[in-house]
Design goal:
Blueprint (H helix, E strand, L loop, with lengths): L3 H22 L6 H23 L4 H22 L5 H22 L3 H24 L8 H22 L1 H6 L4 H20 L7
Length: 202
């Protein structure tokens, strides 16, 4: 009988490898911060699978992902937003690091930091779409970042809901739902890279 949690881990890992394969194959000079986010996420998932089967605590790899991921997402949104709201993300980086230091070093927990991480994803993707609606540019030219931010928004909203019912999910062994949702979001990102012409620059 197939273990659905293990299946979700491999689906998450495979889906996460596709964007990397596509942006290498396309030889696209895209936003390097976005590429770093994708690679970091894939490596974190790879560690998650490895530590799961070796029964090793992966807390430190997750903490490292939270810190690096938050910084990278902040710089990504700073790079694609064309208005004053972009500067907000540079301010939020030290704020997050201070908040993380207080919560983890002071209370040995980081659940609120996870919410902070989800918040930056939701805020950035929402501001991106709001700025597009307010601008007069042809939105079809931004189809790549539309897909990327759509994927980020879908993942962040879904994860926020799952996080709010975390205890129920863990008690009933349903956390694999998150892994499938993340895998689907990575497939959307992979599609965005696949649609790009070779040697394109975004």
């Amino acid at each position: 009988m197939i273990n659905i949690f293990n299946l979700s881990l491999f689906f998450q890992l495979l889906a996460g490898s596709l964007p990397i394969a596509f942006f290498i194959f396309k030889k696209s000079n895209n936003n390097q911060t976005l590429q770093a986010i994708i690679i970091l996420s894939f490596l974190t998932n790879l560690l998650q699978v490895t530590t799961h089967f070796w029964r090793i605590n992966n807390k430190w790899s997750f903490i490292l992902y939270l810190i690096l991921g938050y910084i990278l997402y902040s710089f990504y949104f700073f790079s694609i937003l064309k208005n004053k709201s972009a500067n907000l993300f540079l301010v939020l980086i030290p704020l997050f690091l201070v908040f993380f230091s207080i919560e983890y070093l002071g209370y040995n927990q980081f659940s609120n930091c996870v919410l902070f991480f989800i918040f930056i994803q939701l805020l950035g993707s929402l501001l991106y779409f709001i700025s597009n609606i307010q601008s007069e540019m042809n939105l079809s030219k931004n189809n790549f970042h539309d897909l990327i931010n759509g994927s980020i928004f879908i993942y962040a909203t879904s994860t926020l809901f799952l996080f709010l019912i975390l205890y129920f999910l863990m008690e009933n062994h349903l956390w694999y739902i998150h892994n499938f949702i993340e895998g689907i979001s990575k497939l959307i990102i992979a599609y965005a890279f696949w649609k790009l012409p070779k040697t394109s620059r975004i």
